[in-house]
Design brief:
The protein has eleven helices and eight strands. It is α+β, with helices and mostly antiparallel strands and about 325 residues long. α7 crosses α8, α7 packs across α9 and α8 crosses α9.
Length: about 325
């Protein structure tokens, strides 16, 4: 993809880091920004803000090595993705998040160190996370970007660095084709299941169709099926469309009702636990203070001292 205009370059410093490039998305498109960072083999962070959230991509010598989704977008967080894929349970994720808060390590590092996830599986989900975050920011029409140059070392437990140009090609395809495939299915939330009694030859499926077909045993929620299959929403909906056209799956509109976001539920549980720990520490602190006052006023008072002295003289 050729660059059609020169980007604005800033030489100022921001919070101690050299700002290489910053500006508005409307003036310099996101594909051009990624292409520029890649072609010049830059290392550093590219923060893209828009639609009320900020996503940060980390580059090492022009390749993407990590992404930091906005914390408010819980479904894009690595732990939530692995939980939705059935690789982690809610209790597993709570323990990992507690360990992360205590040691400051990244969740991927903890998962590999504890043997919860293999490096190969983690690498696939890290690529999935980068893809989905990139596809998301490509939809921004308003917002800002800022690239800050500094040395970035790829994590030994992470996957292979990703070429931005390959992802951008998929991203352009997503922008062009996703609305068409999504329009095949009901608006809003829907459920998908295998059609009973259908005999299929999985070897006749494409790779995406095969992994989707297998993952339909896991859940009837398309988003969780896509997570289990380690596919982006675009890859997943395209594969489901192919299975639907073959007459192999059934689609139903999800009934309206109160649903609980598992990610929000987990965050609420952690917040409640932290508040409980804070209250417990405050109660213990008050008890220790009261005991100290009692000891000082009772055991160390003049009357007590005189009684103790008399007792010593007596014996």
């Amino acid at each position: 993809m050729a660059l059609v205009r020169e980007p604005p370059v800033a030489s100022q410093r921001l919070r101690g880091k050299a700002v290489t490039m910053q500006g508005k998305i409307a003036d310099f498109g996101i594909p051009d920004i990624f292409q520029l960072v890649s072609s010049q083999a830059k290392s550093g962070s590219l923060a893209i803000s828009g639609n009320g959230r900020v996503t940060i991509f980390l580059f090492s010598e022009g390749r993407i090595v990590d992404v930091q989704p906005d914390r408010r977008e819980s479904r894009s967080l690595l732990g939530t993705m692995l939980r939705d894929a059935g690789i982690l349970t809610d209790s597993d994720l709570r323990r990992i998040l507690s360990a992360q808060g205590a040691g400051g390590k990244k969740i991927g590092e903890i998962l590999v160190a504890k043997g919860k996830v293999s490096k190969e599986v983690l690498g696939r989900y890290l690529v999935l996370q980068v893809k989905e975050c990139l596809f998301d920011v490509l939809t921004f029409r308003e917002g800002e970007y800022r690239f800050e140059g500094f040395a970035v070392r790829p994590a030994p437990w992470g996957g292979e660095p990703i070429r931005p140009d390959v992802l951008l090609m998929e991203g352009m395809q997503y922008l062009d084709e996703y609305p068409r495939y999504r329009g095949i299915f009901p608006q809003g939330d829907f459920l998908v299941t295998r059609k009973r009694g259908e005999r299929v030859d999985p070897h006749a499926f494409s790779a995406v169709e095969r992994v989707l077909w297998k993952s339909l045993d896991f859940s009837d929620d398309p988003d969780r099926v896509f997570r289990k299959a380690c596919l982006t929403g675009f890859e997943g909906i395209k594969g489901l469309a192919a299975l639907l056209q073959r007459g192999l799956i059934e689609v139903a509109t999800k009934k309206a009702g109160a649903t609980v976001d598992p990610g929000k539920r987990l965050r609420d549980e952690i917040a409640i636990r932290r508040r409980f720990d804070t209250i417990r520490m405050a109660v213990w602190g008050a008890a220790v203070a009261a005991a100290a006052v009692w000891i000082y006023r009772g055991l160390l008072s003049r009357e007590t001292f005189r009684v103790f002295t008399a007792w010593v003289d007596f014996f």
